[in-house]
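Subgroup meeting minutes
Present: P.N., E.W., G.H.
Scribe: E.W.

1. P.N. recapped why we're keeping a running log of single-chain structure predictions: easier to compare across weeks, and new members can see raw inputs and outputs side by side.
2. G.H. added today's entry (391 aa).
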Amino acid sequence: MKVISFILAGGSGKELGVLTRHRAKTAIPFGGRYRLIDFCLSNCANSGVKDIFVLAQYNPKSLINHIGMGKPWDLDRKTGGVYILQPSYNGEIAQWYKGTADALLQNLDLISDSDADYVLILSGDQVYTMNYQNIINQHIESSKPVTIAFKEIDPSMNQSLGMLSVNDSRVITGFVEKPRSSNYKYAFMGIYLFNREYLIKSLYNKPRDLVFDLLMPQIEDRMVGGYEFKSFWQDVGSLSVYYRTSMGLLEDRSFLLDKDLPMFTRNKELAPSRFLSESNVTNSILGSGCTISGNVENSIIFPGVYISEGVSIEDSIILPFSKINRNAVIKSAVIDKMVKVEEDVIIGVDTDDSSGGFITTIGKGSKIKKNTKIGKGTMVEPESIVSEDLV
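Output recorded in log:
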């Protein structure tokens, strides 16, 4: 039995605002150490899936740099490994991927030439740890040509996700995309497992979208099995969900600590973080290479961040190599990489909401000049120089 995997990593992630202006959604840093793509790559490595194709399109540079040859996931090998596939010129016309199914169609030769029995298709912007062998084993037992993973969720979340109905035989009987109201209680996780030959035949019809053009007719014909996943899972599709999911790690990060499903990533080799005598850090996650002199509370600080004396950071996420200078105050904000915050800056003025609706975001490489105030919910574009109040 052999499985190859395709990771869908081409989405633009517009709902994540400035965090995806210069990077693919799957390359967004997460949890003080990782990037979103690490979850799929680590799950594959832990499940024995060693042939992985990443379908990339939008702003792929940071994603390509992060994955490299796949060494952190033990994928730099002579047989198998990880490959990044981008739209290419075929001698007649350059073709962008027109959808998730079209991305597979444009790489149909790789599926056809493979000696794999099954094709595992994964969404690359989700946070979870899973041994894919469990869904593979159920798929083989079911005799269905397609199996998809689902998870029971809080009904309040169904407006942002595709929702499923499942019968007692674990067969998918219905699907609705982001319903305003629905009796369905199971969310589609964006995980598909196909019999390889069946997928090849399905792609001959030239579908664009995996769900609407390919999966829906199969659901109507009761050809799709369902695998229920009961551990932590979150689709990170918007800034509010990204913020809320990140902050949730401060309460419980047990799913990241499973010794049987370790998380792997590529990180710079930095010295241990240093806490100076003036520092005060409570209920926070800190990466390596940081220098902390100020106060940090309920926050996630990525590697290489410098926090000067007199600084107050609360309920915030500071991405790698940003520098927060003396007496700055930051509350309920996401500060992207390599941002410089000068003295006496206030970010997140009067912010009293931590649900994600009032999150202030500062784009990569921006400079916030001294004595500037930036109000709650404000979005500063990458590489900006802010010298006037934005409140």
